[in-house]
Each structure stands twice: as C-alpha cells, then as structure tokens.
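Risk register update: the risk of archive-format incompatibility is retired. Evidence:
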Amino acid sequence: MLECTQYMLDLLTIGSHEERTKLVNDMMKDNKITLLQDHLREIKEESNEQS
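Archived output:
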C-alpha cells in the first residue's frame, strides 16, 4: 500500500495537469477522498483528546 500511496503523491506533486485530474477524479469515484478526510479527522480528534 505504501508504494501505491507514494506513486499517487508523486503524481499529485510532479504529474501533469491531466495526470493529477485523472487521479483526483478516480479517487472521487471510489469515495476515497471522503474516506481519507474522515480518517484524518478521526486522527486529529484522537490527537487532541490525548493532549
């Protein structure tokens, strides 16, 4: 999974406009962006609770 994530990060940082657009559109179709946002929100909340 780490290799896949690194590949996507590379596309988002140095990919062409078309590559970035396709990646984001694909992630939106799978609802992955929303799931990632939810997961990051949970991590932040847990971190705040531990502080």
